[in-house]
Write a structure and sequence with these properties.
Elements: H1 2-7, H2 15-47, H3 52-101, H4 104-108, H5 112-136, H6 139-154, H7 159-203, H8 205-210, H9 214-240, H10 242-266, H11 272-313, E1 335-342, E2 353-360, E3 365-369, H12 376-380, E4 391-396, E5 399-400, H13 406-412, E6 413-416, H14 427-431, H15 440-449, H16 453-457, H17 476-488, E7 494-498, H18 506-517, E8 524-529, E9 540-545, E10 548-553, H19 555-561, H20 563-574
Parallel strand pairs: 3-8, 3-9, 6-7, 7-8
Antiparallel strand pairs: 1-2, 1-4, 4-5, 9-10
Helix pairs in contact: 2-3, 2-6, 2-11, 3-5, 5-7, 5-11, 6-11, 7-9, 7-10, 7-11, 10-11, 15-17, 19-20
Length: 583
């Protein structure tokens, strides 16, 4: 219950409804407990002596009580739904906001399928549990205790039946619940596994079809689906035993009550109405225990979900929070790396960046060149603090990036990644994603500088053309150009192009770099590339190999001084790569 208790803070905005619902349920339970007494009165004082007045008056009272009880139950249901679903909405919002607050390092360790399960299935389990608690946690003890007390008051002679039946009912319930708990926890894990297979298949459906692996993926899904079905079947089978076992015990109790009561009625020691009322209370006690069993089974599933939600909500972001006070209202764009090392491992083992130092002056273009896996992307992601350095420091205009508010830092640093991520929105909305207040003329100008305007104008609805899921209706080069337009729209002081022209032809790439070089506002540019043609006119070129800067200088200087750079240059020229703008 500890994890579930921690989540109860999300019901605080709806505490009024959460209090009213159980109070109404108390009213309904108390009114339900009156019904057997009415039945006893009708039988013993109305039907047996033939007094129709008692039958009509008591019957009318029963209808009135039933009506009020129904209204109480409907009101309880209404307020319980409002409170539990409101809590569910707040919980989903908190989980989503937690995702947004986590660093790349945290998200690298969390399976996307598990995040989806947290937001959907786990939250729904907790939400339904709260609704059942608001409706049943009060009704169950009131009915059980009230039935027990009133049954004894109705007929103390039949109390022996309660003494035998109730312990048997409770014992059966405890055994079944203890076995059902771990089974429902396994069900939630199976749902995680199924979501992971489904997500991977949907994300990589083109690769699956290209390599004719449809049958293999179908088998993977069938295996995960079968495992989930097996776990659910085992859990439901166990919990389904509750009803027949408890019904059998109840029926034995009813038989015992009829046998003992029948003998006493025959001998004149009891009246018929007493026996009927006693059996009615016995059935109400059975209903209370059945309600309790359903509540406990639901609790077992909700507790597993609550534990996973609490574990996620208590995840500590790997990036320490930066101050919130602005300290860099105007940014010139001077970037300094001072003996920077970085490792994806928290303990700092196996660094991917090793003692890198360089300076990018305002308005300069710095290029990072190296083979795939050399550490270029890891290095540039340290500038906007997507990750934190393991050793050394990075400064922007003399301020350590770890000491700048994240929103302010990232407002000054624009980035376009190699894998362009687009959203299900129009082309115009995708370009303006990071600057929603930008006027249309600036959006159009950014598209022209990114060499995207021409193909956008050819699209059916121009800038209002919807972008499909993950940009499915655009080519790789078109998506990259939209990502560049999005990055340059806010006019950041620092622009990072992380191999973001890899899918663009050389002539278009040349025009993009030419447009960026002629911007009226000085802008420091960090360009990650594998093609020499992308870095020829950079003010500073860093050649990176295995996380180490092995050479740096201009194109001409590196041709003279770096064998590694010269080898890369000559191999690309020999392969027929177009080197634009070279003298």
């Amino acid at each position: 219950m500890n994890a579930l208790a921690k989540l109860l803070r999300f019901i605080r905005p709806f505490w009024g409804w959460a209090i009213v619902a159980p109070l109404l349920m108390v009213g309904e339970a108390l009114l339900d407990l009156m019904q057997p007494r009415f039945v006893r009165h009708i039988i013993d004082d109305g039907i047996v002596p033939g007094n129709a007045t008692v039958v009509w008056h008591t019957g009318g009272a029963m209808v009135a009580v039933f009506t009020v009880a129904g209204l109480c139950g409907a009101g309880c249901c209404y307020f319980a739904v409002r409170a539990s679903y409101g809590m569910g909405a707040c919980l989903r919002k908190a989980v989503f906001e937690k995702v947004q607050s986590l660093s790349f390092g945290n998200l690298d360790k969390i399976d996307t399928s598990k995040l989806i399960t947290r937001l959907t299935s786990d939250t729904n389990q907790v939400q339904e549990m709260i609704m059942m608690m608001l409706r049943g946690m009060v009704r169950m003890p009131v009915l059980l205790l009230g039935s027990f007390v009133l049954a004894l008051r109705t007929s103390p002679r039949l109390g022996v039946v309660l003494v035998v039946v109730l312990p048997l009912l409770v014992a059966a319930l405890v055994v079944i619940i203890r076995r059902a708990f771990p089974l429902y926890r396994a069900v939630q894990q199976g749902l995680d596994d199924l979501n992971r297979v489904l997500r991977e298949n949907l994300a990589g459906v083109r690769v699956v079809k290209a390599f004719a692996r449809t049958a293999h993926e179908a088998a993977r899904f069938a295996s995960a689906n079968s495992s989930l079905v097996t776990r659910m079947t085992a859990a439901v089978r166990m919990s389904a035993r509750t009803t027949p076992v408890m019904t059998l015990i109840l029926n034995l109790g009813i038989v015992g009550a009829l046998w003992i009561g029948g003998q006493r009625v025959s001998s004149g020691e009891m009246r018929v109405g007493e026996v009927v009322a006693f059996i009615s209370y016995l059935m109400q006690a059975h209903m209370a225990l059945m309600l309790f069993s359903n509540l406990i089974i639901q609790l077992s599933r909700a507790q597993a979900s609550a534990r996973r939600l609490v574990e996620f909500l208590e995840t500590v972001p790997e990036l320490p929070p930066a101050p919130t006070q602005s300290c860099l209202p105007v940014c010139r764009g001077r970037i300094v790396f001072e003996n920077v090392s970085f490792s994806y491992d928290v303990a700092g083992r196996e660094p991917v960046i090793k003692n890198v130092s360089f300076v990018a002056e305002p308005g300069q273009t710095v290029a990072l060149l190296g083979a795939t896996g050399a550490g270029k992307s890891s290095l540039v992601q340290l500038i906007p603090r997507l990750y934190d350095v393991t050793a050394g420091r990075i400064t922007l205009d003399g301020h350590d990036v770890r000491e700048l508010p994240e929103a302010e830092l990232r407002a000054h640093v624009g980035i376009a990644l190699q894998e362009a991520v687009l959203f299900r929105a129009s082309v115009r909305q995708n370009i303006g994603w990071g600057a929603t207040a930008a006027p249309e003329k600036e959006i159009f100008a950014s598209a022209r500088r990114a060499q995207a305007d021409e193909f956008i104008q050819r699209m059916p609805q121009g800038y209002e053309t919807p972008v499909g899921q993950r940009g499915v209706n655009l080519s790789g080069g078109q998506k990259q150009r939209l990502a560049i337009a999005r990055a340059i729209l806010p006019r950041p002081a620092v622009l990072i192009l992380d191999d973001s022209t890899s899918a663009v032809d050389l002539q278009t790439e040349a025009r993009i770099h030419g447009e960026l070089a002629t911007q009226p506002i000085p802008q420091t540019r960090i360009i990650v590339a594998q093609r020499i043609s992308s870095v020829l006119h950079a003010d500073l070129i860093l050649v990176i190999d295995d996380g180490v800067v092995v050479a740096q200088g201009t194109h001409a200087q590196l041709l003279d001084s770096s064998a590694v750079y010269r080898e890369i240059y000559e191999s690309q020229v020999e392969q027929g790569a177009l080197v634009y703008g070279e003298n």
